[in-house]
Please model this.
Amino acid sequence: MGQDTIDKVLAAKREASPPAADGDGDKFYSILQGEGLHEHFLELKIRDGLRVCLSYTDLMWFSYDPEGPKIDLEFGGIFVTIKGRGLGEALFNGIKQKRVAWIKEKDTEMQDHRENKVFIEEISFITKKEEAAPEE
Model:
């Protein structure tokens, strides 16, 4: 199959698939627009429906690893890893400025296409207790 045929099949499947339950579709994050606007919480939307809000006040440090590619964050003992692509510019800077309102994981593999400059494959959490637990 040629690339054009593959692109047509993928486009047809995307059109036929139901929209995401929260109405975000292929959007993986939201940044507040406008001067002086800041978020108090970063909301993380997990594909199974779980939503977690973490206070920007508790954000101790974060980093972007382009080879991962991933963003790691620590919120007072809770470590969050966001894996995907296109994370380095707008999303990283939005977190730095406390303007990212929410980030969501992919709903399906069909969301990983070239029209999406940003794609969030997975959001995972580890607490300090889990990290310090000895391996069995």
Summary: The CA atoms of residues 126 and 132 lie 10 Å apart. DSSP finds three helices and eight strands in the chain. The longest helix spans residues 3-16. Confidence is low (pLDDT under 50) at residues 17-22.
